[in-house]
Automatic annotation (TrEMBL), chain A:
UniProt keyword annotation of Ligase present: no
Membrane-spanning residues: 26-53, 65-87, 117-134, 244-263
Its biological purpose: Transmembrane (T) component of an energy-coupling factor (ECF) ABC-transporter complex. Unlike classic ABC transporters this ECF transporter provides the energy necessary to transport a number of different substrates.
Record organism: Bacillus yapensis
Name listed for the protein in its UniProt record: Energy-coupling factor transporter transmembrane protein EcfT
Family: Belongs to the energy-coupling factor EcfT family.
GO cellular component, one term: plasma membrane
TrEMBL record, chain B:
Organism from which the protein derives: Bacillus yapensis
Membrane topology category: Peripheral membrane protein
PROSITE patterns cross-referenced by the UniProt entry: ABC_TRANSPORTER_1 (PS00211), ABC_TRANSPORTER_2 (PS50893)
Alphabetical keyword list: ATP-binding, Cell membrane, Membrane, Nucleotide-binding, Translocase, Transport
A Pfam family hit: ABC_tran
A GO cellular-component term linked to this record: ATP-binding cassette (ABC) transporter complex
Similarity comment text for this entry: Belongs to the ABC transporter superfamily.
Highest taxon listed in the record's lineage: Bacteria
Protein name: Energy-coupling factor ABC transporter ATP-binding protein
Compartment annotation: Cell membrane
GO MF: ATP binding; ATP hydrolysis activity; ATPase-coupled transmembrane transporter activity; cobalt ion transmembrane transporter activity
NCBIfam families membership: ECF_ATPase_1, PRK13635.1, PRK13648.1
The keyword Nucleotide-binding appears for this protein: yes
């Protein structure tokens, strides 16, 4: 199950999308999320679908892998489709069976909304599939920079994100260790009724929490000893580069948007 | 050589909400280019001392001077540039997501320009022999490797003094050797002062000078030879005697003539296998 999830996973590859600046990628996805709502007929949705499909192709992430990972989401998409089929009552009746009747408007609405939903998820997963978490963090830090004017702690937020990312594997290891230690003391984590299994989490969580607080304190001391005193006057080691690909990608989206506005009814 | 870089004068300190003093009227000096070991068992005040040295805590009484600068709230950031620290837990001092990010962290904090940073990250990783691990993530590294990265992070800032606060106590013997070798090498190359806070007397035996702490007070100060003469006294302080010292003491008791307490295994072995021909 965990192996099949694709949310937040990064697939290394050599592709234009991988080479893009995280800033432009985040911006692109954000704009796409807005643009999707312009579409309102078959042509515009078709256009969006083609665009998304081309983006997926250019990412060089295996399509089979993406679809496999989105299987759970596909069920959700199907569910929205069914909901619309039964509950939207617009246009002519297409099909009637007993008290159940399906309308033309319902079918159209259902298909459009599920396509929209599906495309949104595809594009956002494409972002995380082609960008390392730390790059996303860097991108967000720069993009949110204007918010510093209203005293929004942008630097702190980015640092928090990168430290959390850095500590995920460490905490996983620790969880594993505690689990083994508690198993040795007779706690059963798998099997048994759900009530017992939930209870078994407590002796796992408490040592994990205490350990994390200790870690946090030591980390803070170490950071301070290395001269950390907030974002003020700091330079940055990681550098973001806005390249030709980035401009081209955003231009393409601009063209798609123009076409959508032109063809929408 | 006897040029003091650190002067500690009548320093007392106690933690908030505690009755007992963690440090009581401690005074000593640390000289340029020396390797000083501070030993003592848990609660002897040796780690508190480390925290005072770079202003993570401030003394209640007394004065600390580092590189000729008085340590106060105003000078603390300048002093932290002079004094680098490596802590005990390799995981809890690794801030960056990759090796190079972590080395750069201290440089970023001090506002070093980027071109300079790239060069310093490379050279300091090279000096701890971790240059092939630039993009490695911390969970793929061993404890000793992580500590070497931490050392690189300290070296990159070009400090005068490096403090090892039990930096080897969580490592296996191999990792410990790796780290100590690295420090020795760096000390030779860069003329740094090393202050190693430890309860491992084998490690302390290789220092130029040892300070023994007990109950927040400076108990004894001397060369390793002088300190290990204390024998039983050390055991009473909760410290162990290094194996070669113990061994030579026992051999002496058996009537084998040895002219002193040997601090390292090699020394003792050499003495033993040449003792016959030396007669």
């Amino acid at each position: 199950m965990m192996e099949k999830m694709i949310f937040g996973r990064y697939i290394p590859a050599e592709s234009p999308l991988h080479r893009m600046d995280p800033r432009s990628k985040i911006l692109l996805v954000f704009l796409f999320v807005c643009v999707v709502f312009i579409a309102n007929n078959a042509i515009t949705y078709g256009l969006l679908a083609v665009y998304t499909f081309l983006m997926v192709l250019s990412s060089k992430v295996p399509i089979r892998f993406i679809l496999g990972g989105l299987r759970i989401v596909l069920w959700l998409v199907l569910f929205t489709l069914v909901l619309h089929l039964f509950f939207t009552k617009e246009g002519d009746v297409l099909f009637q069976w007993g008290s159940i009747s399906i309308y033309e408007g319902g079918l159209k609405q259902g298909i459009f909304i599920s396509v929209r939903f599906f495309l949104l998820i595809l594009m956002t997963s494409l972002l995380t599939l082609t960008t390392t978490p730390i790059e996303i963090t860097d991108g967000i830090e720069v993009l949110l920079d204007p918010l510093k004017k209203i005293k929004f702690p942008v630097h702190e937020l980015a640092l928090m994100m990168s430290i959390s990312l850095r500590f995920i594997p460490t905490l996983m290891e620790e969880t594993d260790k505690i689990m083994k230690a508690q198993t040795a003391r007779g706690v059963e984590f798998s099997g048994g009724p759900i009530k017992d299994r939930v209870k078994a989490i407590i002796p796992l969580l408490i040592p994990l929490f205490i350990g994390s607080f200790k870690r946090a304190e030591e980390l803070a001391t170490a950071m301070e000893a290395r001269g950390y005193r907030g974002g003020e006057g700091r330079t940055k080691y990681r550098q973001l580069r806005w390249g030709f690909v980035d401009t081209v990608m955003l231009l393409i989206l601009a063209f798609v948007t123009a076409a959508l506005v032109l063809f929408r009814s | 050589m006897k040029n003091p870089v650190v002067t500690i004068e009548n320093v007392s300190f106690k933690y908030d909400g505690q009755e007992q003093y963690a440090l009581k009227d401690v005074s000593f000096q640390i000289y340029d280019d020396e390797w000083l070991a501070i030993v003592g068992h848990n609660g002897s005040g040796k780690s508190t001392l480390a925290k005072l040295l770079n202003g993570l805590q401030f003394p209640e009484e007394g004065r600390i001077q580092i590189g000729g600068i008085d340590l106060t709230e105003e000078t603390v950031w300048d002093i932290r540039k002079l004094i680098g620290m490596v802590f005990q837990n390799p995981d809890n001092q690794f801030v960056g997501t990759t090796v190079q990010d972590d080395v750069a962290f201290g440089l970023e904090n001090n506002g070093i320009p980027r071109e300079d940073m790239v060069e310093r990250v490379q050279s300091s990783l090279k000096s701890v022999k971790m240059e092939q691990f630039l993009d490695q993530e911390p969970h793929h590294l061993s404890g000793g490797q992580k500590q070497r990265v931490a050392i690189a992070g300290v070296i990159a800032l070009r400090p005068k003094i490096i403090v090892l606060d039990e930096a080897t106590s969580m490592l296996d013997p191999r990792g410990r050797e790796e780290v100590l070798d690295t420090i020795r090498q760096l000390k030779n190359d860069h003329q740094m002062t090393v202050i190693s806070i430890t309860h491992d007397l084998e490690e302390a035996a290789k220092a130029d000078r040892i300070i023994v702490m007990n109950g927040g007070e400076l108990y004894r100060e001397g060369t390793p030879e002088e300190i290990f003469q204390m024998d039983e006294e050390l055991v009473k302080l909760g410290l162990d005697i290094p194996f070669p010292v113990k061994m030579s003491k026992m051999l002496k008791a058996k009537g084998i003539p040895l002219n002193k307490h040997y601090l390292s295994e090699e020394e003792l072995v050499t003495q033993l296998w040449t003792s016959h021909s030396n007669k």
